[in-house]
Design brief:
The complex is a heterodimer of chains A (about 325) and B (about 1200).
Chain A (H helix, E strand, L loop, with lengths): L2 H11 L1 H6 L12 H27 L3 E5 L13 H6 L6 E7 L8 E7 L7 H5 L3 H6 L14 E2 L2 E2 L5 H4 L5 E6 L2 E2 L2 E2 L6 H7 L30 H7 L7 E8 L8 E7 L11 E6 L9 H27 L3
Antiparallel strand pairs in A: 1-11, 2-10, 3-9, 3-11, 4-5, 6-7, 6-10, 8-9
Helix pairs in contact in A: 3-10
Chain B lengths: L24 H4 L11 E5 L27 H9 L3 H12 L9 H34 L2 E7 L2 E6 L8 E5 L7 E7 L5 E5 L1 H4 L4 E5 L18 E5 L11 E5 L2 E5 L4 E2 L4 E3 L3 E8 L5 H5 L9 H35 L20 H15 L6 H20 L13 E2 L11 E7 L5 E12 L2 E3 L5 H22 L4 H22 L24 H13 L4 E4 L6 E4 L3 H13 L1 E6 L3 E6 L8 E11 L7 E7 L5 E7 L1 H6 L9 H13 L2 E11 L1 H16 L5 H12 L4 E12 L3 H10 L3 E5 L4 H10 L8 E5 L4 H5 L7 H21 L7 E6 H7 L5 H10 L2 E5 L3 H15 L2 E6 L5 H6 L2 E5 L6 H5 L2 E3 L4 H41 L10 H11 L1 H10 L5 H6 L15 H25 L14 H23 L5 H23 L2 H4 L5 H6 L3 H28 L3 H10 L2 H4 L1 H10 L8 H26 L6
Parallel strand pairs in B: 15-27, 15-31, 27-30, 28-29, 29-30, 31-32, 32-33
Antiparallel strand pairs in B: 1-8, 2-3, 2-4, 4-13, 5-11, 5-13, 6-7, 6-12, 8-9, 9-10, 14-33, 16-17, 16-26, 18-19, 20-21, 21-22, 22-23, 23-24, 24-25, 25-26
Classes of the chains: A alpha+beta (about 325), B alpha+beta (about 1200).
Main location (chain A): membrane
Subcellular location (chain A): Membrane
Keywords (chain A): Membrane, Transmembrane, Transmembrane helix
Chain lengths: ~325, ~1200
């Protein structure tokens, strides 16, 4: 072999040559029976434990769900709940008593849950202005907030249907005569508070129209500190959703009775929605949801079954 | 003289050979030119006259571009939005700026702009290339008469009609010119028309006698004249015009016209007048757009798009009905939407209006079902695939330096589905290079070399012998396989030997007559005459090769060239031709010194396919008049004199031998003429020549006939039409790949059959079905009475009989070959008979059509294409194959020695036939699978994604809200899932190229369409449906209402959407990884890179100002990444999506494996190295059952021997029942 030959040979071996000739080194995995069985078994051995662990985490969560929308309407008004809830002159006080079945370790999260409430309706979702929330009424291009954009020719801050329909039931919790301390700070995402809702933006001209939707806001508190609003503005994906209200930072023992004083202001009666109060502890995985664990176990076990079936079939009809 | 090529269109009488037959123009008188179609008037040497109407003609500027700077935008946009899918996306983009749109405008417009922009960029680039090519032509320089006899250089584009142009040797003609004069006194010039009709031989043009004096620059000082002629038209071989010069009118005909793009050869210079310039020139008028072809997969893809469109329409309707119902009955109660503020889109009072407007919204929303990027991705993939084809070093021909070329990239995958190959013979299967191999002179056979057919036969014999041994010793098939491999090596080694052949066209070896030894042979005078005929009786032109000092020949046909080369090698070197004579240098004369001899050519009676002979009448230096004739043996033998039959018997025997050896044969004869006899005949002949009228040709023929009789036979020649390198092997492989091969040739039947044998398309023991129109008796007596009807009935009967015979054949190994000639084919292709003909042809293992015209080639191709409904591939090299190439589903041109016509019309070009094997079996197979898998996957991914949008609708009151951020959706098709699928389409290999070639039967997956049938497509769609369900519902349930973080936060729409989208990205990319079987670092990079890009995007997007990212602000960093549930949901959904598919492919691979699965496994276990036996067994198993090719020959032989052996055994047993075993 002469020098030029060798050079040519080397040149041929270069990556680009291999690339153009489609002979790049490649790994060509082949699903041989051994591999298949290994993969299925491996999947099984990953998923079953993961499933069991998640299941355990989910089971460790204690949850109290109490529906209150009907009970909190006094008996005489139950025929026409809508007019009851819309009538400002009638006091909306209501008391519930919740029995704690199991020890609940602090923090205990308080949620309100609304059902059949289409927060994900396109008309609703679009009806907000992120820029206005950040920059205040100086920001004018708020056409997306239709139909809650102006009132008396003045811009509404925060504008849009979402803010306008702010949830306004309030809850206080009493255990054995002593009010439980409810922490209502830090219930919204930090980034929302810091970057999406202006620190110098104050509610302005809010709920001043003839049509009043939901809760009012304290005009002296900047939007970045109106955490109820911030949580509410995170529209839910499904028509049934929970939103964080606050945290009880005391442990609740089994058989404790918690009395909830609530103001039943929010109108879910018009569209037949349900309102629920949820007290829940959390695990490392979040709230109570067995599904993830069960699904993992299911997937894991089916892949183990597949592995076994495969093995048997393979033994029976070996190629 | 046997000619391989069809030159029907070319009227030979206008060429050199008939020049002495042509009556001079003066006698003919001017054409009467009037009426429409003959309006063109050209003022010679007065180009200024052509600056204004009515003489203003098109300039010589040519443009083949589709667009120019102004028209590009509107025209290209129109082209783009011609596609239904693009139009749909344009609609959605327009809607997206209205409030109806569920997405932001930019997220709809950006992908469309990207996709359309990319396609337009490709168009622009292609057009730019065309423009540059045009510019190169337009700026070529040519000498043009300026004034006062001074010529100066001008660019081509400046040449005007009426200009006097001086073209020099080896230059192209800038426009269609009228030849005025040339460097030769008699005003002839030689022209190469390769670019026009693909013929390499030179043609002679001849100027009018009156203009011969205009042969120097000064002569044009005061030259004027007027040409009246036909309008621009595309007919290359006709021209009608008059030339008015010196107050006389002369008729012009095509022999004075030099066509643009042909080349001046062998002539120092010519003067001409531009008649047709630029786009008016005949060659530009001839430029036809090649029909745009679409592949089967693409056509089927349209149906899938329709299916998806209907699905889209359906779910849009469901959505809008749901929306209307919700709006009417529920929305009035939803106070938080302020239903009292109605607009057109939310109007509980008018639910129908809302429903209709929502339908528009929904059509946009679910548009993700129609993959916007599909077209552009496929385009990108095909271009890359094509570049791989172009780059393939194993399809690069080192001799000519031509690589394979995919000229259109949109048929790549069609290469993998070919069912029938229709091949030209000359130049495709054979080199169109004749080798003088043997001759028979005076009854003695000379030449010891063997032809390829003989060699093949010898090999066959050797194998048969070995086979018998093998049968006796092992009795296994194994041995046969190994021999086949040995056979291949034998053949290849022979090819190498051929390669060394020193003289092109001459493979003769025989010391008896080489190197002047013939002088010592007994019949030396006859041998000398034989060589002289070879050297004199032809129409070729010698060309001195200045480097070597030897002569090469421009001959009309390669046989003629081979004769001249042979004559030269024998010592009779033809070195000069004038109008009246042929000069031959005789190296070995009796005197012992080289002598230059001149033979005056008195008459030349040219070759036609009807006459099948050629004659020259010459006067040698002694004044002796000789008639030298060469022609087809039967024709010559009929015309022999009584005493000329001395060698007839021996020669005939030799001719038969040569014929069997697959050689082309010609017989040579001569006759001595008396002066008086000749002059008497010549008078008659001249009379016939100058006669005018339709019967002139017949008259001439009859007169010629009178002279060509009483010939004395000298001998015969045998030339070999050389097969191209590797053709038999290639045909064998293609046959094993299950392809049918038809040969369509212009050659006569015997030659075609010989070549058929040489390529193993035919073999001994194959039943040949010959269908011919003229049975012998009908020809003789009834020719006048045989009506078309009778002939047709006769043919139909032959066809039905043959079909019957095939049906009744019991032997499963019996093979049939159909051989049909052009005349019969003309009837067989008629509507009422073609189905029967096709039915018969399909049943035959090989089909050979001989003597077919280019038109018939195209018709046969169409018949096969439309009749069988399968993919056809036509391969050819010459202008006569253009029709066939354009008609077939795929046209392949051989970019060999012949012109570019076939290549220009083709979709792919290869340098040699043997590259077809790699083109089909490797690239075709790959491209088919790649595109099929890619398209399937595309639909899968868009269904999986698009349907999740639909499910979510049901949870939003069908309001048209999407759960994903607009940007996610925008990136989905364009960035996040496009590169992996492109890498699938470009790099996927089920098996390596070597294995493809070793297991040609794998190719059948394409023609059987295993990877793109409805079963598979629907399977993929079902998989998409399943994935969408899993992705959506698992996520919905996991993130239902409870907290998803240990901090108690619940998931909002952004969190759920992002998680769901993450699951989609993972599931889809894992799916494609499961689909692939070949991972280079590129695939790894693209697949895992896409997933990485998604996270990267999410991170960067989250970092942007919240006014841009909205609810996705910091979603990954803050909300999702710290949540274990996000990761476990991703894992669960990804695995759950892919588990069924995984199980499916595992079970399929293990229990119903396809061919490539088995091979992959063997390769994987390295069984091919460890267990050679198993490897070759698998190889033989994976071969397509075939009846042609030499593998089939071997198999047939083995069967035959086995049969014999069995018989022997049984007979032995009968004789001696107790045989020790």
């Amino acid at each position: 072999m002469t020098n030029t030959d060798r050079e040519r040979h080397r040149e041929r071996e270069t990556a680009f040559y291999l690339f153009t000739q489609q002979r790049l080194p490649a790994c060509k995995p082949v699903l041989t029976p051994a591999w298949v069985i290994t993969i299925f078994l491996f999947t099984g051995f990953i998923f079953i434990p993961v499933g069991l662990v998640t299941l355990r985490a989910s089971r460790s969560v204690v949850e109290i769900v109490e529906r209150y929308d009907t009970e909190c309407v006094p008996e005489p008004f139950r025929i026409d709940k809508v007019s009851y809830v819309q009538d400002d002159s009638i006091p909306k006080n209501c008391s519930l008593s919740l029995k704690v079945r199991k020890y609940m370790k602090a923090p205990i999260y308080i949620y309100y849950q609304l059902d059949n409430y289409y927060q994900n309706h396109r008309r609703y979702v679009k009806s907000r202005s992120d820029r206005q929330l950040l920059h205040g009424w100086k920001y004018h291009a708020t056409s997306s907030c239709q139909p809650v954009e102006f009132n008396n020719n003045q811009p509404i801050v925060p504008c849009g249907l979402i803010a306008w329909s702010l949830f306004n039931d309030t809850f206080t919790f009493i255990r054995e005569r002593a009010e439980l301390k409810v922490n209502r700070k830090n219930i919204a995402w930090k980034s929302d508070r810091d970057h999406k809702f202006g620190k110098t933006v104050y509610p302005f001209n809010f709920q001043n129209g003839t049509l009043i939707g939901g809760g009012k806001l304290n005009p002296r508190i900047p939007l970045s500190d109106q955490e109820d609003l911030i949580v509410w503005m995170r529209t839910s994906a499904l028509p049934s959703f929970r939103k964080l209200y606050g945290r009880i930072e005391e442990d609740l023992d089994a058989d404790d009775v918690v009395v909830v004083h609530l103001m039943n202001n929010y109108n879910t009666y018009g569209f037949g929605g349900k309102k629920k109060l949820v007290l829940s502890t959390s695990s490392w995985l979040g709230g109570k949801n067995d599904f993830l664990g069960l699904a993992c176990v299911f997937v894991g076990s089916s892949s183990v079954i597949l592995a076994i079936v495969f093995m048997l079939l393979h033994l029976k009809s070996r190629r | 003289m046997a000619r391989g090529r069809i030159r029907a269109r070319l009227r030979r009488s206008h060429l050199y050979t008939f020049s002495c037959l042509r009556p001079s123009a003066a006698e003919e008188g001017p054409h009467s030119i009037e009426g429409p179609g003959y309006s063109r008037i050209v003022h010679c040497n007065q180009p200024l006259m052509h600056n204004k109407k009515p003489f203003k003609y098109r300039s010589n500027y040519i443009s083949t571009t589709k667009y120019n700077f102004v028209t590009f935008l509107p025209k290209a946009l129109y082209e783009q939005f011609h596609r239904v899918a693009n139009l749909y996306f344009l609609g959605t983009a327009i809607i997206s700026v209205t409030p109806l749109s569920p997405f932001s405008a930019v997220s709809m417009i950006a992908p469309l702009a990207f996709v359309v922009g990319l396609s337009m960029a490709k168009e622009a680039l292609e057009d730019w290339r065309r423009f540059m090519q045009d510019m190169k032509v337009n700026t070529r320089k040519v000498k043009v008469h300026k004034e006062d006899g001074i010529f100066g250089n001008k660019t081509w584009q400046k040449v005007q009609v009426g200009d006097v142009v001086k073209v020099e040797k080896d230059q192209f003609f800038p426009a269609d010119l009228l030849l005025l004069s040339s460097s030769y006194e008699d005003g002839i010039c030689y022209v190469e028309t390769m670019n026009l009709d693909g013929e390499t031989n030179l043609k002679v043009k001849r100027a009018l006698e009156v203009t011969l004096s205009l042969d120097e620059d000064e002569a044009f000082k005061n030259f004027t004249g007027t040409i009246t002629c036909e309008d621009p038209n595309p007919s290359l071989y006709t021209f009608v015009g008059n030339f008015e010069y010196d107050r006389q009118v002369y008729a012009l005909d095509p022999s004075q016209i030099l066509l643009r793009d042909s080349k001046l050869r062998n002539t120092t210079f010519v003067y001409g007048i531009a008649i047709f310039a630029g786009h008016d020139s005949k060659v530009m008028q001839n430029a036809t757009k090649s029909p745009s072809k679409r592949s089967r997969i693409e056509r089927k893809m349209d149906y899938i798009i329709y299916v998806l469109f209907s699905l889209l329409l359906m779910i849009s309707l469901i959505s809008s009905i749901g929306f209307a119902v919700k709006t009417k009955f529920y929305m009035p109660d939803w106070w938080y939407l302020q239903p009292q503020h109605t607009d057109d889109y939310y109007n509980p009072e008018k639910p129908v209006l809302s429903g209709v407007s929502h339908l528009v919204t929904a059509l946009v929303l679910y548009g993700y079902l129609i993959p916007i990027s599909l077209y552009v991705s496929i385009e990108v993939v095909k271009v890359l695939q094509a570049s791989f084809i172009n780059q393939d070093i194993q399809m690069y021909d080192e001799e000519t330096g031509n690589p394979a070329q995919a000229r259109t990239s949109n048929l790549n995958e069609e290469l993998g589905q070919v069912d029938t190959i229709l091949s030209d013979k000359t130049g495709t299967l054979t080199c169109n290079q004749m080798d003088f191999l043997k001759c028979s002179i005076a009854g003695t056979a000379y030449g010891v070399c063997s032809s390829e057919v003989e060699l093949a036969a010898a090999q066959q014999m050797a194998i048969d012998l070995e086979d018998q041994d093998a049968e006796r010793s092992t009795g296994s098939r194994q041995k046969g396989k190994q021999q086949e491999i040995e056979l291949e090596t034998v053949v290849t080694s022979r090819d190498e030997k051929d390669h060394k052949s020193p003289i092109k066209g001459f493979s003769f070896e025989d010391s008896r007559i080489m190197k002047g030894n013939w002088l010592r042979e007994p019949n030396a005078d006859v041998i000398m005459l034989f060589f002289r005929i070879l050297a004199i009786c032809h129409t070729a032109i010698p060309e001195l090769n200045e480097e070597t000092g030897s002569y090469t020949y421009e001959a009309e046909s390669p046989d003629e060239g081979a004769f001249l080369v042979a004559a030269r090698e024998f010592g009779f070197e033809f070195f000069k031709r004038t109008q009246s004579g042929v000069f031959v240098r005789e190296r070995y004369s009796v005197a012992g010194q080289p002598i230059d001899r001149e033979f005056k050519i008195l008459n030349m009676l040219e070759f036609t396919s009807k006459r099948k002979r050629m004659t020259v009448i010459v006067r040698d230096e002694d004044g002796q008049i000789l008639l030298l004739c060469k022609g087809a043996d039967s024709i010559i033998f009929d015309r022999l004199s009584k005493n000329g039959r001395l060698y007839e018997e021996d020669t005939n025997k030799h001719l038969n031998e040569y014929g069997e050896a697959g050689l082309r044969t010609l017989a040579l004869a001569y006759r001595k003429l008396e002066e008086s006899e000749y002059s008497a005949w010549n008078n008659e002949f001249q009379k016939a020549k100058t006669s005018i009228g339709a019967d002139r040709e017949t008259l001439l023929e009859n007169v010629a006939e009178m002279m060509e009789r009483d010939l004395i036979l000298i001998g015969a020649t045998a030339v070999e039409d050389k097969l191209q390198k590797g053709v038999p092997q290639c045909i064998d492989k293609l046959a094993q790949a299950g392809l049918k091969i038809w040969v369509l040739t212009g050659d006569k039947m015997e030659t075609a059959i010989n070549i058929g044998y040489a390529c193993s398309l035919l073999r001994q023991g194959m039943k040949q079905i010959c269908i011919t129109a003229n049975s012998s008796d009908a020809k003789e007596t009834l020719s006048l009475f045989v009506t078309v009807q009778v002939v047709k009935e006769n043919i139909l009967m032959q066809i039905t009989n043959a079909s019957q015979m095939i049906k009744l054949e019991n032997d499963p190994h019996a093979a049939f070959a159909l051989i049909i000639d052009g005349k019969t084919l003309a009837y067989a292709l008629e509507d009422d008979m073609k189905q029967q003909f096709l039915g018969l042809a399909v049943d035959c293992a090989s089909v050979i059509c001989c003597r077919v015209s280019p038109k018939q080639k195209a018709l046969v191709t169409r018949l096969v294409k439309e009749g069988t409904g399968k993919t056809t591939l036509a391969i050819g090299d010459g202008a006569n194959d253009v029709g066939m190439i354009q008609e077939a589903d795929i046209g392949v041109g051989i970019s060999g020695v012949e012109g570019m016509q076939a290549v220009m019309a083709s979709d792919f070009s290869v340098a040699q036939f043997r590259f077809l094997e790699r083109l089909l079996v490797v690239h075709g197979h790959w491209c088919y699978k790649r595109i099929a898998q890619m398209v399937c996957y595309f639909f899968y991914k868009n269904i999986a994604f698009g349907l999740t949008l639909f499910y979510f609708e049901a949870f939003t009151g069908f309001s048209g809200q999407s759960v994903y951020d607009d940007w996610y959706m925008l990136l989905f098709n364009v960035v996040l899932t496009s590169l992996p699928v492109i890498s699938l389409g470009v790099f996927e290999q089920d098996v390596s190229s070597e294995v493809c070639l070793q297991f040609p039967a794998l190719y059948q997956q394409g023609p059987r369409n295993l990877f793109f049938d409805w079963y598979r497509i629907l399977g993929w769609m079902g998989n998409g449906l399943y994935s969408s369900l899993i992705i959506f519902f698992l996520n919905i349930i996991i993130f239902y209402d409870q907290a998803f973080r240990s901090g108690g936060q619940t998931a909002d729409m952004a969190a759920l959407g992002t998680t769901m989208f993450t699951c989609i990205i993972w599931a889809l990319n894992c799916q494609i990884a499961l689909t692939m079987s070949h991972f280079t670092w590129i695939q790894h990079l693209f697949i895992w890179g896409s997933i990485g890009t998604w996270y990267l995007f999410l991170f960067v997007y989250g970092m942007l100002s919240p006014t841009i990212s909205g609810n996705a602000y910091q979603i990954l960093v803050e909300a999702l990444a710290p949540a274990p549930i996000y990761w476990s949901a991703t894992l669960l959904v990804t695995v759950a999506c892919n588990l069924p598919y995984m199980a499916h492919i595992c079970f399929q691979r293990c229990f119903h494996p396809m061919d490539h699965h088995i091979i992959q496994e063997i390769k994987y276990y390295k069984k091919d190295v460890e267990d050679q036996r198993m490897w070759s067994r698998e190889r033989s198993k994976a071969r397509q059952k075939t009846k042609i090719g030499f593998t089939a020959r071997v198999d047939a032989k083995i069967r035959q021997l086995r049969g014999k052996l069995q018989r022997k055994h049984t007979s032995l047993e009968m004789h001696s029942p107790v045989t020790p075993s």
